[in-house]
Specification:
single chain; about 300 residues; mainly alpha; Farnesyl Diphosphate Synthase; two-stranded antiparallel sheet; 14 helices
Protein backbone atom coordinates (compact mmCIF):
# COMPACT_ATOMS: atom_id res chain seq x y z
CA UNK A 1 0.00 0.00 0.00
CA UNK A 2 1.37 3.41 -0.85
CA UNK A 3 2.08 5.37 2.29
CA UNK A 4 0.35 8.70 2.59
CA UNK A 5 0.10 11.72 4.78
CA UNK A 6 3.66 11.60 6.15
CA UNK A 7 4.42 14.25 8.69
CA UNK A 8 7.19 14.99 11.14
CA UNK A 9 6.26 15.21 14.78
CA UNK A 10 7.53 17.54 17.51
CA UNK A 11 10.88 17.35 19.30
CA UNK A 12 12.84 17.67 16.06
CA UNK A 13 15.97 18.49 18.06
CA UNK A 14 16.01 14.90 19.32
CA UNK A 15 17.41 12.07 17.24
CA UNK A 16 15.02 10.03 15.14
CA UNK A 17 14.59 6.43 16.19
CA UNK A 18 15.93 3.50 14.18
CA UNK A 19 14.64 0.31 15.77
CA UNK A 20 16.75 -2.00 13.64
CA UNK A 21 20.02 -0.32 14.63
CA UNK A 22 19.37 0.72 18.21
CA UNK A 23 19.48 -2.73 19.83
CA UNK A 24 17.70 -2.58 23.18
CA UNK A 25 18.37 1.14 23.66
CA UNK A 26 14.79 2.13 22.88
CA UNK A 27 13.45 -0.33 25.43
CA UNK A 28 15.90 0.87 28.07
CA UNK A 29 14.72 4.42 27.41
CA UNK A 30 11.17 3.35 28.28
CA UNK A 31 12.26 1.56 31.46
CA UNK A 32 14.35 4.56 32.51
CA UNK A 33 11.39 6.92 32.09
CA UNK A 34 9.12 4.64 34.13
CA UNK A 35 11.75 4.29 36.88
CA UNK A 36 12.06 8.08 36.98
CA UNK A 37 8.31 8.34 37.49
CA UNK A 38 8.46 5.69 40.23
CA UNK A 39 11.33 7.58 41.90
CA UNK A 40 9.10 10.63 42.30
CA UNK A 41 6.71 8.66 44.54
CA UNK A 42 7.14 7.95 48.23
CA UNK A 43 9.49 5.10 49.07
CA UNK A 44 6.92 2.30 49.52
CA UNK A 45 4.78 3.00 46.46
CA UNK A 46 7.80 3.93 44.38
CA UNK A 47 9.61 0.72 45.32
CA UNK A 48 6.63 -1.41 44.31
CA UNK A 49 6.23 0.35 40.97
CA UNK A 50 9.98 0.15 40.35
CA UNK A 51 9.89 -3.61 41.00
CA UNK A 52 7.14 -4.10 38.42
CA UNK A 53 9.22 -2.17 35.90
CA UNK A 54 12.45 -4.07 36.63
CA UNK A 55 10.69 -7.44 36.59
CA UNK A 56 10.12 -6.79 32.91
CA UNK A 57 7.24 -8.84 31.61
CA UNK A 58 7.00 -9.67 27.90
CA UNK A 59 7.09 -6.04 26.69
CA UNK A 60 4.64 -7.04 23.97
CA UNK A 61 2.90 -3.65 23.89
CA UNK A 62 5.97 -1.54 23.33
CA UNK A 63 7.19 -3.97 20.65
CA UNK A 64 3.88 -3.62 18.81
CA UNK A 65 4.09 0.17 19.05
CA UNK A 66 7.59 0.22 17.58
CA UNK A 67 6.59 -2.21 14.84
CA UNK A 68 3.73 0.11 13.89
CA UNK A 69 6.09 3.11 13.87
CA UNK A 70 8.34 1.40 11.36
CA UNK A 71 5.54 -0.11 9.30
CA UNK A 72 4.01 3.34 8.83
CA UNK A 73 7.35 4.76 7.68
CA UNK A 74 7.53 7.16 10.59
CA UNK A 75 10.19 9.79 11.07
CA UNK A 76 9.46 10.36 14.75
CA UNK A 77 11.88 11.62 17.34
CA UNK A 78 13.21 9.12 19.82
CA UNK A 79 11.68 11.19 22.62
CA UNK A 80 8.21 11.07 21.08
CA UNK A 81 8.26 7.33 20.56
CA UNK A 82 9.66 6.75 24.06
CA UNK A 83 6.87 8.82 25.61
CA UNK A 84 4.21 6.92 23.68
CA UNK A 85 5.68 3.55 24.64
CA UNK A 86 6.05 4.62 28.27
CA UNK A 87 2.44 5.76 28.30
CA UNK A 88 1.28 2.38 26.98
CA UNK A 89 3.40 0.52 29.56
CA UNK A 90 2.10 2.69 32.41
CA UNK A 91 -1.48 2.03 31.31
CA UNK A 92 -0.63 -1.67 31.32
CA UNK A 93 0.87 -1.46 34.83
CA UNK A 94 -2.19 0.37 36.09
CA UNK A 95 -4.44 -2.32 34.66
CA UNK A 96 -2.27 -5.05 36.23
CA UNK A 97 -2.46 -3.40 39.64
CA UNK A 98 -6.25 -3.17 39.43
CA UNK A 99 -6.47 -6.72 38.06
CA UNK A 100 -4.50 -8.05 41.01
CA UNK A 101 -6.79 -6.14 43.35
CA UNK A 102 -9.87 -7.71 41.73
CA UNK A 103 -8.30 -11.19 41.82
CA UNK A 104 -6.95 -10.76 45.37
CA UNK A 105 -3.66 -11.96 43.86
CA UNK A 106 -0.72 -12.37 46.24
CA UNK A 107 2.01 -12.28 43.57
CA UNK A 108 2.85 -10.38 40.44
CA UNK A 109 5.97 -10.96 38.36
CA UNK A 110 7.43 -13.31 40.91
CA UNK A 111 7.16 -11.31 44.15
CA UNK A 112 4.52 -10.75 46.79
CA UNK A 113 2.05 -8.00 46.03
CA UNK A 114 2.01 -5.03 48.39
CA UNK A 115 -1.69 -4.98 49.19
CA UNK A 116 -1.07 -5.87 52.84
CA UNK A 117 1.52 -3.11 53.20
CA UNK A 118 -0.09 -0.41 51.10
CA UNK A 119 -3.77 -1.13 51.72
CA UNK A 120 -6.55 -1.44 49.16
CA UNK A 121 -7.17 2.29 48.86
CA UNK A 122 -3.54 3.08 48.13
CA UNK A 123 -3.24 0.21 45.64
CA UNK A 124 -6.30 1.45 43.75
CA UNK A 125 -4.98 5.02 43.71
CA UNK A 126 -1.58 3.82 42.53
CA UNK A 127 -3.25 2.12 39.57
CA UNK A 128 -5.23 5.26 38.77
CA UNK A 129 -2.05 7.31 39.09
CA UNK A 130 -0.34 5.12 36.47
CA UNK A 131 -3.20 5.71 34.05
CA UNK A 132 -3.20 9.49 34.64
CA UNK A 133 0.57 9.68 34.25
CA UNK A 134 0.25 7.76 30.99
CA UNK A 135 -2.39 10.18 29.74
CA UNK A 136 -0.16 13.15 30.51
CA UNK A 137 2.76 11.70 28.54
CA UNK A 138 0.60 10.89 25.53
CA UNK A 139 -1.28 14.21 25.60
CA UNK A 140 2.08 16.00 25.29
CA UNK A 141 2.62 14.27 21.93
CA UNK A 142 -0.60 15.47 20.35
CA UNK A 143 -4.37 15.64 20.51
CA UNK A 144 -4.90 12.76 18.08
CA UNK A 145 -2.78 10.48 20.23
CA UNK A 146 -4.72 11.48 23.33
CA UNK A 147 -8.04 10.69 21.60
CA UNK A 148 -6.76 7.21 20.65
CA UNK A 149 -5.44 6.66 24.17
CA UNK A 150 -8.72 7.74 25.81
CA UNK A 151 -10.71 5.35 23.62
CA UNK A 152 -8.33 2.55 24.61
CA UNK A 153 -8.66 3.30 28.32
CA UNK A 154 -12.46 3.20 28.01
CA UNK A 155 -12.36 -0.25 26.39
CA UNK A 156 -9.91 -1.60 28.97
CA UNK A 157 -12.18 -0.39 31.79
CA UNK A 158 -15.24 -1.92 30.12
CA UNK A 159 -13.48 -5.26 29.82
CA UNK A 160 -12.37 -5.20 33.45
CA UNK A 161 -15.90 -4.35 34.59
CA UNK A 162 -17.31 -7.26 32.57
CA UNK A 163 -14.70 -9.53 34.11
CA UNK A 164 -15.58 -8.50 37.66
CA UNK A 165 -19.32 -8.37 37.00
CA UNK A 166 -19.47 -11.98 35.79
CA UNK A 167 -17.25 -13.46 38.51
CA UNK A 168 -18.61 -16.83 39.75
CA UNK A 169 -21.28 -16.72 37.01
CA UNK A 170 -21.44 -20.28 35.67
CA UNK A 171 -23.59 -19.14 32.75
CA UNK A 172 -20.66 -17.28 31.14
CA UNK A 173 -20.16 -18.60 27.63
CA UNK A 174 -16.92 -18.93 25.70
CA UNK A 175 -18.11 -16.20 23.30
CA UNK A 176 -18.79 -13.81 26.18
CA UNK A 177 -15.40 -14.60 27.67
CA UNK A 178 -13.65 -13.89 24.34
CA UNK A 179 -15.54 -10.60 23.96
CA UNK A 180 -14.34 -9.55 27.41
CA UNK A 181 -10.74 -10.41 26.50
CA UNK A 182 -11.00 -8.31 23.35
CA UNK A 183 -11.63 -5.25 25.51
CA UNK A 184 -9.63 -6.03 28.63
CA UNK A 185 -6.43 -7.11 26.82
CA UNK A 186 -6.96 -6.40 23.14
CA UNK A 187 -7.73 -2.70 23.59
CA UNK A 188 -4.26 -2.10 25.04
CA UNK A 189 -2.58 -3.78 22.08
CA UNK A 190 -4.81 -1.95 19.61
CA UNK A 191 -3.98 1.39 21.22
CA UNK A 192 -0.26 0.65 21.03
CA UNK A 193 -0.52 -0.17 17.31
CA UNK A 194 -2.64 2.88 16.49
CA UNK A 195 -0.39 5.26 18.42
CA UNK A 196 2.67 3.90 16.65
CA UNK A 197 1.09 4.05 13.21
CA UNK A 198 -0.18 7.62 13.58
CA UNK A 199 3.35 8.92 14.15
CA UNK A 200 4.08 8.26 10.49
CA UNK A 201 0.90 8.78 8.50
CA UNK A 202 -2.67 9.97 8.55
CA UNK A 203 -4.76 6.82 8.81
CA UNK A 204 -8.14 6.53 7.14
CA UNK A 205 -11.15 5.48 9.16
CA UNK A 206 -11.01 2.06 7.51
CA UNK A 207 -7.33 1.64 8.37
CA UNK A 208 -7.94 2.64 11.99
CA UNK A 209 -10.74 0.07 12.27
CA UNK A 210 -8.52 -2.64 10.77
CA UNK A 211 -5.61 -1.87 13.12
CA UNK A 212 -7.99 -1.88 16.08
CA UNK A 213 -9.11 -5.32 14.95
CA UNK A 214 -5.47 -6.45 14.73
CA UNK A 215 -4.85 -5.44 18.34
CA UNK A 216 -8.12 -6.92 19.55
CA UNK A 217 -7.44 -10.30 17.93
CA UNK A 218 -3.84 -10.38 19.15
CA UNK A 219 -5.09 -9.58 22.64
CA UNK A 220 -7.62 -12.41 22.59
CA UNK A 221 -4.96 -14.93 21.52
CA UNK A 222 -2.42 -13.54 24.00
CA UNK A 223 -4.82 -13.65 26.96
CA UNK A 224 -6.20 -17.10 26.17
CA UNK A 225 -2.62 -18.38 26.22
CA UNK A 226 -2.02 -16.55 29.50
CA UNK A 227 -5.20 -17.83 31.16
CA UNK A 228 -4.64 -21.42 30.06
CA UNK A 229 -1.04 -21.28 31.29
CA UNK A 230 -2.33 -20.11 34.66
CA UNK A 231 -4.96 -22.84 34.68
CA UNK A 232 -2.25 -25.48 34.18
CA UNK A 233 0.20 -23.85 36.61
CA UNK A 234 2.59 -22.82 33.82
CA UNK A 235 2.57 -19.09 34.57
CA UNK A 236 5.52 -18.65 36.90
CA UNK A 237 4.85 -14.99 37.60
CA UNK A 238 1.45 -15.66 39.18
CA UNK A 239 0.24 -18.33 41.62
CA UNK A 240 -1.63 -21.20 39.98
CA UNK A 241 -5.44 -21.14 39.96
CA UNK A 242 -5.82 -17.56 41.19
CA UNK A 243 -8.54 -16.98 38.59
CA UNK A 244 -10.04 -20.39 39.42
CA UNK A 245 -10.30 -19.50 43.11
CA UNK A 246 -11.99 -16.19 42.31
CA UNK A 247 -14.34 -17.52 39.65
CA UNK A 248 -12.89 -15.31 36.90
CA UNK A 249 -12.06 -18.04 34.40
CA UNK A 250 -15.08 -19.65 32.70
CA UNK A 251 -12.91 -22.59 31.71
CA UNK A 252 -12.26 -23.36 35.38
CA UNK A 253 -15.94 -22.85 36.20
CA UNK A 254 -17.08 -25.26 33.50
CA UNK A 255 -14.46 -27.80 34.50
CA UNK A 256 -15.51 -27.69 38.14
CA UNK A 257 -19.26 -27.67 37.58
CA UNK A 258 -19.87 -29.91 34.56
CA UNK A 259 -16.55 -31.64 33.79
CA UNK A 260 -16.51 -30.12 30.30
CA UNK A 261 -13.27 -28.23 30.82
CA UNK A 262 -11.46 -30.36 28.25
CA UNK A 263 -13.96 -29.51 25.51
CA UNK A 264 -13.91 -25.83 26.48
CA UNK A 265 -10.12 -25.80 26.38
CA UNK A 266 -10.01 -27.26 22.88
CA UNK A 267 -12.41 -24.60 21.68
CA UNK A 268 -10.42 -21.81 23.33
CA UNK A 269 -7.25 -23.02 21.63
CA UNK A 270 -9.05 -23.01 18.27
CA UNK A 271 -10.32 -19.47 18.91
CA UNK A 272 -6.83 -18.28 19.85
CA UNK A 273 -5.22 -19.68 16.70
CA UNK A 274 -7.97 -18.28 14.47
CA UNK A 275 -7.66 -14.83 16.02
CA UNK A 276 -3.87 -14.88 15.69
CA UNK A 277 -4.08 -15.67 11.98
CA UNK A 278 -6.76 -13.03 11.46
CA UNK A 279 -4.52 -10.44 13.12
CA UNK A 280 -1.67 -11.29 10.74
CA UNK A 281 -3.94 -11.06 7.69
CA UNK A 282 -5.44 -7.73 8.76
CA UNK A 283 -2.01 -6.25 9.48
CA UNK A 284 -0.86 -6.97 5.93
CA UNK A 285 -4.00 -5.39 4.51
CA UNK A 286 -2.69 -2.06 5.86
CA UNK A 287 1.08 -2.51 5.79
CA UNK A 288 2.80 -4.23 2.90
CA UNK A 289 5.99 -5.75 4.15
CA UNK A 290 6.79 -5.18 7.80
CA UNK A 291 6.10 -8.14 10.13
CA UNK A 292 3.82 -7.59 13.08
CA UNK A 293 5.98 -8.32 16.15
CA UNK A 294 7.15 -11.58 14.63
CA UNK A 295 8.98 -12.90 17.66
CA UNK A 296 6.14 -11.94 20.00
CA UNK A 297 3.52 -13.59 17.78
CA UNK A 298 5.70 -16.69 17.52
CA UNK A 299 5.86 -16.65 21.30
CA UNK A 300 2.05 -16.83 21.49
CA UNK A 301 2.09 -19.78 19.07
CA UNK A 302 4.63 -21.58 21.24
CA UNK A 303 2.70 -20.89 24.43
CA UNK A 304 -0.49 -22.27 22.89
CA UNK A 305 1.37 -25.39 21.80
CA UNK A 306 2.69 -25.88 25.34
CA UNK A 307 -0.81 -25.54 26.79
CA UNK A 308 -2.18 -27.99 24.21
CA UNK A 309 0.41 -30.59 25.25
CA UNK A 310 -0.83 -30.28 28.85
CA UNK A 311 -4.45 -30.69 27.76
CA UNK A 312 -3.83 -33.94 25.92
Amino acid sequence: MTQKGHHKMSDQAESSIDIDNSGDDWSRDVDAMMLSIAGALDSLRGAYLAHLVRAGGRKFRRILLYDAVQAAGAYASRGVVTRLATGIELLHLGSLIHDDYADAATQRRGVLSRRDQLGDETILLLGVGCVLEAGGLIAAVGHGCLVAFTAGVKRVAQGQLRDIGRAHDQSVTIDEYVTMLGDKTGALLATAIILGATTGRDLSGTELAVLESVGTNLGVAFQIADDLEEFHGLNHGKPAHVDDANGLCPLALQSASSHTGQVSEVRLLEVARTRLQRARDDWYSVFDDFPVAGSAVDNIHNRLARVESCAQ
